[in-house]
Amino acid sequence: MIKVDLHLHSEASNKPGGYFSQKLKISESYVKPIKLYNTLKDRGMTLITITDHDTIDGCLEIAHLPDTFISEEITTYFPEDRCKVHVIAIDINEKQHQDIQHLRGNIYELVDYLQKNNIVHILAHPLYNMDGKLKKEHIEKFALLFDNWEILNGTRSKTSAHITEKIAKSFTKEKLEELANRYNIYKRTRDHISFTGGSDDHGGIDLGTGYTVAEGNTLEDLKQAILTGKTYYEGDYGNPKKLTHMVMNIGKEGVKRRYNLGDIGYLLDQLFDPKPQSHSIIDQILGRNSASIFIENVIKFKGKVIKDNHENIFNFFSNLLPYTLNQIKNQKSFDFDKVSMYLGKALIFSTVYLVYLSVYKQRAEEKNTSLNLHKEFFGNGHVEGKVAYLSDTFFEINGVSRTTQKLFKLVQEEGYNVKFLISHKKKVESDYIKNFEPVLTFDLPEYEDIPINIPNLLEVLDYIESENFDVIYSATPGVMGIYGLVISKILNIPFVTAYHTDFPQYVYRYTQDHTITNIVTSLIKLFYNSADRVLVPSKEYYNKLKELGINKDKMVVFRRGVNTQKFNPSYRDKNFWKNYIKDYNNQFVVMYAGRVSKEKDLDVFIEVYERMKNNPKVRFAIVGDGPYKKELLQTYSSKIAFTGFLEGESLARAYASADFFLFPSTTDTFGNVVLEAMASGLIPLLSDKGGAKENIVDEVTGFIVKDNNPEEYKILIERLIDNDTLRSSIKKNILQYIQNFDERDLLIEMLKLLSLERLSKVNQEVVV
């Protein structure tokens, strides 16, 4: 069996590969031909060649070695518009190379020459838009010119490879006849296109990791297999991580040749090309070198050293900053020299983040070219139906996390292609969750129970790119939300988010500072206007965001529902409140449920209590937890029932065992708890500000109080207590009305909205 890497480069590819390479005078490759040969042999290749750009010098250096043959990657052009194309010619001689160099300016003349001289040739990376000129008509002309296409290329994505193969297979005999008549060319020798593979390695790291397979043993067997279309490809597809490391290794070698990098250069050599550890007596006496030890310590800081060198390189640069911070943190005494050394190393190596980001963006553009061509050829998008759901809160107690948990449960039950991306110190095991270990964690001011977890941006970026998500959804505008937005711009993936929290109001409530509030408002405006779609939970906040300056065409109002199996009047327990109220004797209970924090306007709830505390027919209860609870307990622990956080059946019993739901919050964008209370048979009394009021019809399924007036709340509660008929009528209306809020149906609708209608189930294809 033949295994041969049919696309790879040596130091003979000595021209700069781009603008910055030209300025720095860095070549495309610095790999010695003999090293290339030995590496390929070690990795199981049975035949060896080199395909340097428009030169055979590298091949000539190893041409005397067994199993080698001479090849080159030819740069050619369509004469109509100078669109650049790469063609691989194999088993050529020096005279043929010289002829090719004279003819390569015209792709048609080049193909004529290759066919006339029986030179086996392959179209390299067909969908790679090298100069921005590649269009559908060029791909159609490829189908008329080339029998053999390179599908697997070690620097191109799996998505691009699949689309390339799909397009190649779409050229039926009838289609080729039609195209031949249109373009007046046809140089094919057989009807079907066959496929090859190569690593396209320039840096020496991935030699032989992508290759062509054919029956036989000799070069003639290989050529015959290519000519008859009986080759196939195996190995690894490309990804931005591998390409970044190739670029970094080339850059490192180029800079080393012009500048003395000293210890840093030696350390990078050890990182990119680790040598097997020796166990000689000298090594045992002197020990391993400090560079190897440093590299290993950094990699092991959040993982372990493995055989995959790309993962080790990536983990080294990903871990370097947290490793450095940890070293500084563990200093027993402040040592300025050591701290400076640590920070210096972190600063130098953190600059490679820019290299990663730029390469990931460039690869995203390459992938996007393939996706656009797919749409042009087939009339629909290449969509896998996968959604990345990013959230800064998952385990905490708040409305966003509760909605996320409900969606998480639904996704598991239905097998939707949604992955929940979070950052938490907890160890999480689920096929539907990807947890990124935080690099840094601190508590949110005024919300000590909500930690701010900051993961490594590169890790999140690499994961999202590797998983080929079609949509990024951020439930929150926190760290993960901002990462989602940034990554969406780098990878050119649609970005959707939701407005769950009235941040400007929250900030003003806690700071009373207009300047800070205005800054937050500007940032919120920037964040949401950068999205492709914004989910808004109420018309109230749709109008608020429109006034704030959010593009109304981006916003979509979505509804949320309630599980009436979980929350309903059947859970009513006449003895429930005896657990929290010592002298409880079947009085009416006015209840608040939710986060116990100042921005929920709980001072209004307290004021209503104060006005009714002498009424023997009513008691007050607060269900939930939060930063304001401790302060309230100091004054009202013996006057108001505080249950703390409840969930499951205990929460359902608390709701159903109360009578009125007093929810004075003016900052809630929706108010899940209002629907839960209504489903449990409570009569809601709400403020006329905020989104929660949209859940009720005033004086039909509840009451809306103007200006959050405590006296008005008091009057309404007294009126309801004294009027059995009114209470019964309102409750009947509520229980009928709440049937329109089926939670499961509305959650599915939310998934459709946040996925831009691209969501699929696992193993289900989506066409858009």
TrEMBL record:
User: Which SUPFAM superfamilies does the record cross-reference, listed alphabetically?
Assistant: PHP domain-like, UDP-Glycosyltransferase/glycogen phosphorylase
- Indicate whether Metal-binding appears among the record's keywords: no
Any keyword Cell wall biogenesis/degradation?
no
Q: Which GO terms describe its molecular function?
A: glycosyltransferase activity
Q: Which domain of life is it from?
A: Bacteria
| Pfam families in the record | Glyco_transf_4, Glycos_transf_1
Query: Which key words tag this protein in UniProt?
Result: Transferase
**Residue limits of the Glycosyltransferase subfamily 4-like N-terminal domain?**
397-565
Q: Which residues form the Glycosyl transferase family domain?
A: 576-734
Name of this protein: Glycosyl transferase, group 1
Origin organism of this chain? Sulfurihydrogenibium azorense (strain DSM 15241 / OCM 825 / Az-Fu1)
Q: Source organism lineage?
A: Bacteria, Pseudomonadati, Aquificota, Aquificia, Aquificales
